[in-house]
Amino acid sequence: MCYIVALAFLTACGWLDVSEPDVPEPDPGSVTVLFIGSSYFGSNNMPGIFQSIASAAGHQTFVYPQVAPGNYLDYFADDPETEAVIESLPWDYVILQGGIQNAAYPETHHLITPSSGYHSLFVALHKLEAKISANHAATKTVYMMPWAFEDGMTWVEGQTDTYVDMQLLIRENTKDYADDIGLVLAPVGMAWYDVLEDLSSPHYLHSDDWNHPNYRGSYLSAAVIVATVFVRSVENAAFQGSLPEALAAEFREIASRTVLDSLEVWNILPQ
Description:
Elements: H1 2-12, E1 31-37, H2 39-42, H3 46-56, E2 61-67, H4 73-77, H5 80-86, E3 93-96, H6 101-104, H7 109-112, H8 121-135, E4 140-144, H9 163-181, E5 184-186, H10 188-196, H11 215-230, H12 245-260
Parallel strand pairs: 1-2, 1-3, 3-4, 4-5
């Protein structure tokens, strides 16, 4: 409360400049989609891939990325610029991205990597959903279920959780968060799990830093989010980007199946 009062005082007195965001006017009839997240969205321009797949599926969209690399989701929850972007339009959808360790290990991840500090994913999601709903009650807030690190937590001394262990914890925790807060869950992490479960190729969806997506990972993620937003299969959305046609088609089939076979699990209402 003190933070909010101080922020309002500083802004009113002109000591803190929160300028109006430069959000263009959407074309009439466009479905408006705001992406809020870090370099996981910024890598390979995932919002742009989303828009291309959506367009190929026959959906006219207006997409705006509010991306700040290197930040946890609680940064965006308390960021005046992000709040101004949220308030700039009556968005149809807001897609939130953030959290891998703090999705898998919400109570202890800060002890695994002390330099990261403690970042409560649940609190950040709750704050952002409240701001989004206050701006426009009809907006659907979608949380992108993260994928696990390629090597799980085995890179930390004394930790034994593999990619599979970590992904299943992420699924369980993010499902609970989505249920508690009332979020739609885009099951990106489970689509990755489908692809990687029996695959031994290194860096197949992850980049060579073992956590960010490569182009394949970004494409699969975007396809899942399109299927989640429009509650439609993207199998016939013939945009392949830089992927081979057959691989892009395989990813779109996996994305569609992951979403549409479990609508109730992901809190997605049929349209």
